[in-house]
Write a structure and sequence with these properties.
Elements (H helix, E strand, L loop, with lengths): L1 E5 L3 E5 L19 H15 L5 H14 L7 H17 L5 H13 L4
Antiparallel strand pairs: 1-2
Length: about 110
Amino acid sequence: MTSNYHGGQHVSMHGGSNNVGINTGSVNYGAATPQDALRELTDAVNALRGHISPADRQVVDASMRTVGTGANAEPGGFRRALRDISGVAGMVGQVGVPVIEAVRKVMAAFGLG
């Protein structure tokens, strides 16, 4: 049996009892302008704040100050700040997924993908 479900990604599963994973293909995160991507990241981080510890909030706040400088940020520092934000978001599970996706969009919008 083969089932195909279409939405943002294409997934195919072929019958059998030994299926252990799926290939979801790639996602295009490059559609947003840098301003739109930064706005989405800010909104996602604001939603995340209530789910992280005070120490993690300090890391995220410092990183967001760096990210907020946008194109004026030192390239290594900008990338490090995004990595730190994504890392904190990854530690809280599903609630952090919108932040991780927003980080990817920022990276794509700034040509860091």
